[in-house]
């Protein structure tokens, strides 16, 4: 996994996210672009007697944002970072994705819009749109004062017969491992598995229980071999491994909570033929439940449904 070289930080972030982005850029000798998106002024303003046009108001808003961003990055430049600023106009997730495509950004960082907890999901509209449709990895930080990640969880689903899925899992593990080394953090790797059709076999077919148990053990052995193969290739053996039978969304969420995970690294589905197709119900459930930062990674060949204007 190549280090990030061209990072985009979405302004509206908290101080911890800014510090993480700056530190990551410094470690990787990367460029850091701090970007803010302002909405277009409503066209109906043209019909109001305000003494100023929507164009004038838009220019004023852009100028204020530019001044604020330049003030924000000035200390970063003094510290030797290659930091720049940009103000875009339009719908935030669309403009960010277009900026990523046009300027080959390789990571988007932002602060989660929500506050977390059971009653209010941590991830809001912009972050979810980016996780679904942005072609590069998206790192959404939980609003926090913590300066360092202590525990990192990589959620994987090894499938050695699917090259795209295999490559995605390798990227997830390498990325999580690299971050854990730089942060001196615990690395956890989790894989949730099920024996396809087990419930149906037990409830309706009359198949002997011993045969069902044999089938489940064979699946478990196959899953373990796949995971061991992945870990042997891309880890040094120090990670805490969680191989758990059960629903993926529930398993990953439970591990994130029980281990007080600070950062979850997870991938999108391996169906690259569907433009913009996100990880699906499993990830949506996980994102609803976790209360930590999340870094999502796309499979090779992913094509964003958002196009340049």
Question: What would a concise description of this structure say?
Answer:
With 309 residues, this protein is of the alpha/beta class. It has nine helices and ten strands.
Could you please describe the fold and organization of this structure?
The chain has 309 residues and is an alpha/beta fold. Helix 3 runs parallel beside helix 4 and helix 8 runs parallel beside helix 9. Strand 4, helix 4 and strand 5 form a beta-alpha-beta unit. It is 43% helix and 19% strand. The relative contact order is 0.14. The chain has a 10-stranded mixed β-sheet with strand order 3-2-1-4-5-10-9-6-7-8, sandwiched between helices.
Read across the widest sheet, the strand sequence of neighbours is: 3-2-1-4-5-10-9-6-7-8
Spatial shape:
elongated
State the total count of DSSP E strands: 10
Taking all Cα atoms into account, the compactness measure Rg is 22 Å
Mean pLDDT across the residues is 85
| Poorly predicted ranges | 116-120, 271-279
Topology as a string of helices (H) and strands (E): EHEHEHEHEEHEHHEHEHE
- Secondary structural class: alpha/beta
If helices are DSSP runs of H or I spanning 4 or more residues, what is the number of helices? 9
Query: Beta-strand percentage?
Result: 15-25%
Tell me about the largest β-sheet: 10 strands, mixed
- Helical content band: 40-55%
Distance between the termini: 30 Å
């Amino acid at each position: 996994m190549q280090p990030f070289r061209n990072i985009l930080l979405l302004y509206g972030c908290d101080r911890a996210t800014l510090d993480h982005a700056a530190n990551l850029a410094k470690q990787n000798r990367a460029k850091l672009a701090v970007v803010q998106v302002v909405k277009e002024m409503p066209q109906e303003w043209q019909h109001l007697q305000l003494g100023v046009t929507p164009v004038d108001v838009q220019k004023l808003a852009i100028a204020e944002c530019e001044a604020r961003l330049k003030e924000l990055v000035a200390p970063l430049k003094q510290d030797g970072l290659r930091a720049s600023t940009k103000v875009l106009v339009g719908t935030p997730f669309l403009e960010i994705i277009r900026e990523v495509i046009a300027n080959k950004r390789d990571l988007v960082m932002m602060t989660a819009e929500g506050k977390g907890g059971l009653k209010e999901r941590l991830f809001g509209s912009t972050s979810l749109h980016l996780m679904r449709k942005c072609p590069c990895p998206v790192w959404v930080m939980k609003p926090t004062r913590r300066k360092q990640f202590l525990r990192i969880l990589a959620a994987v689903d090894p499938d050695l017969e699917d090259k795209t899925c295999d490559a995605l899992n390798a990227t997830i593990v390498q990325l999580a491992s690299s971050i854990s080394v730089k942060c001196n953090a615990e690395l956890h790797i989790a894989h949730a598995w099920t024996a396809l059709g087990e419930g149906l076999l037990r409830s309706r077919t009359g198949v002997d229980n011993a045969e069902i148990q044999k089938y489940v053990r064979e699946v478990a052995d196959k899953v373990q071999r796949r995971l061991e193969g992945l870990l042997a290739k891309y880890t040094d053996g120090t990670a805490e491994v969680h191989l758990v039978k059960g629903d993926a969304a529930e398993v990953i969420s439970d591990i994130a909570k029980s281990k007080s995970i600070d950062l979850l690294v997870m991938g999108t589905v391996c169906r690259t033929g569907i433009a913009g197709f996100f990880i699906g119900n499993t990830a949506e459930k996980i994102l609803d439940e976790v209360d930590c930062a999340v870094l999502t990674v796309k499979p090779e060949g992913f094509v964003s449904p958002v196009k340049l204007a």
